[in-house]
Amino acid sequence: MTHCTQEESLVINGFNSVHLSRAKSKKSNKISGGISVFVKSNLKAGVKFLEHKTNDYIWLKLCSTFFSTTEDIYLCFIYNPPSNSSYTQSLDEEIFDLLETDIEKYSKSGSIILAGDLNSRTGTKQPDFIEGDNRNGVNQIFNNFDPDINVPVRYSMDETISSRGKFLNDICIETGLRILNGRTTGDSIGQLTCYTPNGCSVVDYFIVSENLLSKVCFFKVHNLLGDLSDHCQISVLLNIHCKIKGDTCQTQMSLKSYKWNENSTELFQEALSSGSMQQKI
Questions:
Q1: Distance between CA 81 and CA 173 in Å, rounded?
Q2: What pLDDT score was predicted for residue 141?
Q3: What local confidence, expressed as pLDDT, does residue 135 receive?
Q4: What is the rounded CA–CA span in Å between residue 220 and residue 232?
Q5: Which of 128, 84, 90, 110 is nearest to 211 (CA)?
Q6: For 26-33, which contacts have Cβ atoms below 8 Å and span 24 or more sequence positions?
Q7: Model pLDDT, residue 80
């Protein structure tokens, strides 16, 4: 989220960016928030920014031909303001209603990834999928029916479930999306993502189509940088590869552990001082 105008928006060398800003607040005459998305310039050819109905979220299409995926991936970055905010109260349509309509539309053409601050506390008592789902008793006319797979149990350090959280869980069930927080390598306990004077919560998520779960290498909630934000950065790594100007770029699985021996210290120091590593550093 950003409160910058288009002219003040951050520019990063080697990245293309899109900035969405809300209208100025009538009381303060300041930008009331927005979203900035940065895409590495060498990936630009495979990323298409799509039309959006509101400046509270933005859709990108990751083209299957560029990223060598079986189908296009539709990635949505979203900021859903608190339900009691004056901005939310002024909206003609609920952001979740608009989002659900888009999810249904794009799901027909590819897989879905949602990311951002949804201001929704989903707890753990209400699942985001149908437990024990199967095709038993399903009429043959519903040949396209795909039962929910048994995904790992989702844990969370925030056990509270809000009305928005219930709605988000319902959206996941209806559209085949799954929350990564608390059930993915890198975040097995559902780390808190937001720290405020009123308390701590999990409101920032990565949520993916069920068929993308096998592509997720890890999901991580980073340490809080309180001087910058009261929210933690969240990140995800997908196991895909793409061709960039004849070269193949492929994500790599992170090692779960390292075995050290008496030569490891010297080898580690040599690796750090190598030319290729110095460039990366």
A1: 23
A2: 47
A3: 47
A4: 10
A5: 110
A6: 30/3, 31/3, 31/4, 31/5, 32/3, 32/87, 33/1, 33/2, 33/3, 33/79, 33/81, 33/87
A7: 93
- What does the pLDDT read at residue 248? 55
Q: How many CB atoms lie within 10 A of CB 29?
A: 7
CB atoms within 10 A of CB 3: 13
User: Residue 95 is inside which H or E element, if any?
Assistant: helix 95-107
Q: In this structure, are strands 15-21 and 34-40 parallel, antiparallel, or unpaired?
A: antiparallel
Phi, psi of 227 (to 5 degrees): -75, -20
pTM metric for this prediction: 0.79
Q: What is the pLDDT of residues 105-120, one digit of tens each?
A: 999 999 999 999 999 9
CA distance 152 to 173: 15
- Report the 10 Å Cβ neighbour count for 214: 8
pLDDT-derived band at 51, boundaries 50, 70, 90: confident
CA distance 37 to 23: 18
pLDDT digits (tens, 9 = 90+) for 220-239: 999 999 998 999 999 999 99
pLDDT score of 138: 46
The two three-digit tokens of residue 51, written as one number: 């039309």
Cα–Cα separations (whole angstroms), residue 259 to 65, 226, 255, 269, 273: 38, 35, 11, 16, 21
Tell me how far the alpha carbon of residue 276 is from its chain's centroid: 31
Question: What residue type is assigned to position 65 of the chain?
Answer: T
Average pLDDT, rounded, for the chain: 84
* Closest C-alpha among 281, 137, 104, 189 to residue 180: 189
Whether pLDDT at 150 is above 80? no
Strand partners, 60: 49, 75
Work out the angle at residue 88's Cα, subtended by the Cα atoms of residues 83 and 92, and round it to the nearest 5 degrees.
125
